Amino acid sequence: MPNNGFKDVDSEASILRFLNETHRLHDSCITSVKFDDGRFVDRNGDMHCGAGSEAKLTLSFDSQIGKPPARFKLMFAGVSRFEYSHDATDDGLILSCEVVLDDGMVRFACNEWDSEPRPLVVAKSFKYLTVI
Predict the structure, then answer these.
(1) Which of helix, strand or coil describes residue 7?
(2) 44-103 tens-digit pLDDT
(3) What is the pLDDT of residue 1?
(4) N- to C-terminal Cα separation, the chain
(5) With contact defined as beta carbons under 8 Å apart, do 59 and 22 qualify?
(6) For residues 5 and 86, what is the distance between their CA atoms, to the nearest angstrom?
(7) Do β-strands 47-48 and 40-41 pair in parallel, antiparallel, or remain unpaired?
């Protein structure tokens, strides 16, 4: 399956590459969220829940870093957790992010020292694209 320019984040080296290329998402904000967990209700009204373990999440970020300012798209697959609390008083400002690989899962968190805003994703895989 082609990656369409996306870079996988699946090792300590790729985590460092992501953090360096995105400047840890410093001075950025989430501009869109798309979540698809595969569940649906069919025309007969039956709910289909079996695909929930294959949930997909796409987060788009705009950053003030660079000229012109950078845009990043992060894609997660096999999402088991997604939590986002938007703090309007801080305009959803992201100051930093961290990525941890743990037991075959990726943990992505922003503003790890603070409580708001804090998107938190736990997923089986993670890749990103820089859109300039």
Answers:
(1) strand
(2) 999 888 666 789 999 999 999 878 889 999 999 999 989 887 665 566 788 889 999 999
(3) 42
(4) 24
(5) no
(6) 29
(7) antiparallel
Rounded to whole angstroms, the Cα distance separating 96 from 98 reads 7
Collapsing DSSP states into helix, strand and coil, what is residue 116? Answer: coil
Which pairs from 109-117 meet CB under 8 Å and 24+ separation?
A: 110/25, 116/85, 116/87, 116/90, 117/30, 117/84, 117/85, 117/86, 117/87, 117/90, 117/92, 117/93
The 3-class secondary structure across 16-82, one letter per residue, is HHHHHHCHHHCCEEEEEEEEECCCEECCCCCEECHHHHHCEEEEEEEECCCCCCCEEEEEEECCCEE
pTM: 0.86
Domain locations along the chain:
7-40+51-131
User: Which of residues 116 and 41 earns the better pLDDT score?
Assistant: 41
Q: Using 50, 70 and 90 to split pLDDT, how confident is the model at 118?
A: low
Instruction: Evaluate whether 125 touches 83 at the Cβ level (below 8 Å).
Output: no
Evaluate if residue 43 carries a pLDDT over 50: yes
